[in-house]
């Protein structure tokens, strides 16, 4: 895929297709009017017939207009002028790219009017164009045996109009890297759990490290995990025939001594619930329970790809959560790597068990910040639905940084209150604490559990149970929160 910016002369631009915006008032946007006069008012006449009213998400393809070099024009709805903001621009751009991906068009120039610079500056214009192109061209890595439909022809996308071409170009470059990382996350998460096992995740991490300069992978096998005394992680994994793996990815983009950002991913390649077995409906979706791990692996490739000037460590705890003769039972007590003992009252609260050992492992890097990413609780989905991930932690500046990154990246999260009282339900008569504490406020209780392992660290937790994948007809990985993490890392590297 080739990205660039166009600066002037849409009518004479040598591309297959010009993408123009139409407001709901039936009015062509500014860029559109220039094209319209070049082709003798044909577009206005078309709109005059009322066939296309410019609603958000609507598109129409028009061929062979005289007076312009492009063989097609794609009109995309911008909605009403009054409501024309970043969101409407994005929607129009998204719809246009989706429509282009269904044609044989191989090059285009995006020439939508822009909302105010405050809403969308040149850098984010470029980034959004590249990210949305990546999303429009994404094809699920299915195992269907029928002949695949032809791949989209789109090879070249020019973004505009721009004020500062260099900022837009940087946005395009970084957006393309984010889209590539998102594809890595989505492909890993979409794979069935009989393919994507802990071993497979580790091998993929290794292969990606080989392909990216500056990235190193180390994999701990079961014996090495035992040597690290990760008793909680091992308790989860002991019910499965699939052995666990602990993956360490290191990217060095700054001097060695510089404290790294550590990203920790939940890599439950399948979550049956264990002995506390889940209900069958929708259980297949628990193959997505390694989405946090996939996002961490993807984010490390992104840091390497963009040669970000900071150090990043990715830690992935990869296990399968199964019932079985050797499985951990409710009431069993495990000793975590930190030495704290945990009464496992519910084997389906396994994410926090593997994360607590991974978070403890993070300490050896003396990190500047630790962020764990996990499809951790159904309660977070109840609380926030599917638009925002949940964010909690023990460092308000870090949380603010993540909230801001999410907003800029269009990959939002929302803070839930993690105050001390939420740890009270975790009391146990038999161990230092239990791994569950009732249903109410479950997303926060889970974070309160993790907080017991992150004292003295600057730590934040992203619960992505509601945002990492979609159910229903569109079932599949969304690739979130890779854009958020990417924005966070890009900003950290620049400041
Ligand atoms: N992987 C699930 C959380 C989840 C639920 C992710 C729905 C995506 C959609 C997690 O391991 C889990 O089972 N959590 C339990 C915790 C409970 C036992 C305290 C839950 O949310 O029910
Ligand atoms: Mn579970
Ligand atoms: Zn789980």
Tell me what the structure shows.
The chain is of the alpha/beta class and 495 residues long. Helix content is 35%, strand content 21%. It is built from 14 helices and 19 strands. The chain has helices at 30-38, 42-48, 86-101, 122-137, 165-190, 198-211, 222-227, 231-237, 291-305, 351-362, 378-384, 396-408, 442-451, 482-494, and strands at residues 2-5, 17-23, 59-63, 72-79, 107-111, 156-159, 215-220, 245-252, 261-271, 311-321, 332-335, 341-344, 369-374, 389-393, 413-415, 433-434, 459-463, 469-470, 476-477. The strands form four sheets. The chain has an eight-stranded mixed sheet, with helices on both faces. Strands 1-6-5-2-4-3 form a six-stranded mixed sheet, covered by helices on one side. A three-stranded mixed sheet has the order 11-12-16. Strand 14 (389-393), helix 12 and strand 15 form a beta-alpha-beta unit. Helix 3 (86-101) runs parallel beside helix 4. It starts with a strand and ends with a helix. The mean pLDDT is 97. Ligand BES binds at residues 271, 289, 346, 348-351, 375-379, 381, 436, 442, 465.
């Amino acid at each position: 895929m080739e990205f660039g910016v166009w600066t002037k002369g849409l009518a004479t631009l040598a591309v297959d297709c010009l993408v123009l915006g139409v407001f709901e008032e039936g009015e062509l946007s500014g860029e559109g009017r220039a094209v319209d006069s070049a082709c003798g008012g044909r577009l206005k006449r078309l709109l005059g017939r009322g066939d296309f009213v410019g609603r958000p998400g609507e598109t129409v393809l028009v061929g062979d207009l005289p007076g312009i070099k492009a063989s097609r024009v794609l009109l995309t709805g911008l909605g009403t002028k009054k409501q024309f903001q970043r969101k409407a621009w994005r929607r129009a751009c998204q719809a246009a790219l989706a429509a282009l991906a269904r044609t044989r068009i191989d090059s285009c120039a995006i020439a939508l009017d822009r909302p105010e610079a405050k809403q969308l500056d040149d850098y984010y214009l470029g980034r959004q164009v590249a990210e949305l192109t990546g999303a429009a061209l994404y094809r699920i890595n299915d195992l269907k045996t029928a002949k695949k439909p032809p791949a989209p022809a789109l090879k070249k996308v020019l973004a505009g109009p721009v004020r500062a071409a260099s900022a837009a170009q940087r946005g395009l470059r970084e957006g393309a890297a984010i889209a590539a990382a998102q594809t890595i996350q989505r492909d890993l998460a979409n794979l069935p759990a009989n393919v994507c096992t802990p071993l497979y995740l580790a091998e993929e991490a290794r292969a990606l490290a080989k392909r990216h300069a500056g990235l190193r992978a180390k994999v701990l096998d079961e014996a090495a995990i035992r040597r690290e005394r990760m008793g909680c992680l091992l308790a989860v994994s002991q019910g499965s025939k699939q052995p666990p793996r602990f993956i360490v990815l290191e990217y060095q983009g700054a001097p060695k001594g510089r404290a790294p950002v550590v990203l920790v991913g939940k890599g439950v390649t399948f979550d049956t619930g264990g002995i506390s077995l889940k209900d069958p409906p929708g259980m297949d979706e628990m193959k997505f329970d390694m989405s946090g791990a996939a996002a961490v692996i993807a984010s490390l490739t992104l840091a390497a790809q963009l040669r970000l000037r900071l150090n990043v460590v990715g830690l992935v705890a990869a296990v399968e959560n199964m019932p079985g003769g050797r499985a951990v039972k409710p009431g069993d007590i495990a000793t975590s790597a930190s030495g704290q003992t945990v009464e496992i009252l519910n084997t389906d609260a396994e994410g926090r068990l593997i994360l607590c050992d991974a978070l403890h492992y993070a300490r050896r890097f003396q990190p500047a910040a630790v962020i764990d990413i996990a499809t951790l609780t159904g309660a977070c989905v109840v609380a926030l639905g599917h638009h925002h991930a949940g964010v909690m932690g023990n460092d308000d500046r870090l949380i603010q940084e993540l909230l801001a990154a999410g907003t800029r990246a269009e990959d939002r999260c929302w803070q839930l209150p993690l105050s001390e009282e939420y740890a009270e339900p975790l009391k146990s008569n038999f161990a230092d604490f239990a791994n569950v504490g009732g249903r109410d406020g479950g997303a926060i209780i889970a974070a309160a559990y993790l907080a017991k392992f992150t004292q003295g660290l600057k730590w934040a937790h992203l619960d992505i149970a509601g945002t990492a994948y979609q159910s229903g007809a569109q079932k599949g990985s969304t690739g979130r929160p890779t854009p958020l993490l990417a924005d966070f890392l890009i900003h950290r590297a620049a400041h």
